[in-house]
Design a protein that fits this description.
The chain is α/β, with parallel strands linked by helices and 127 residues long. It is built from four helices and four strands, in the order E-H-E-H-E-H-E-H.
Length: 127
């Protein structure tokens, strides 16, 4: 089954930067969705509309983050390389927290993924 690549975007506060990213993804036929704090507890698989993954029944009462984050699904390695090159070629600051959806992370909430990516980012950039 060939599915359409998709991207979840979080906390992009610079409208011009967001416009450039969305325009690139749209040209690449990537389904794009902006995720807001009330959706942060839903499983990533639900946000990507993966059949069989149900929404969280919990309400998000303050478990939020403000960092930019991108989660990608069904990107080939060529598409991923192209997306990363787009940032470099257009001198757009990179997004520190980015991930590909996996069979494990599809069951995680956005908050769980954010916490893990933040931890990894901190470890990788310690001097």
């Amino acid at each position: 089954m060939n599915t359409q690549p998709a991207a979840l975007l979080y906390n992009f506060n610079d409208p011009e930067r967001l416009r450039q990213i969305r325009r690139y993804l749209n040209r690449q036929k990537v389904k794009t969705r902006i995720i807001t704090a009330p959706e942060f507890l839903h499983p990533l698989g639900y946000l990507f509309e993966i059949p069989g993954i149900q929404p969280s029944s919990r309400f998000n009462l303050g478990s939020n983050f403000t960092d930019e984050m991108i989660v990608l699904n069904d990107f080939s390695s060529e598409q991923m390389d192209g997306f990363l090159a787009f940032f470099r070629e257009n001198q757009i600051p990179s997004v520190a927290l980015k991930a590909m959806l996996t069979p494990v992370t599809q069951h995680w909430s956005s908050i769980q993924l954010h916490n893990e990516l933040s931890r990894e980012h901190t470890l990788m950039h310690k001097k």
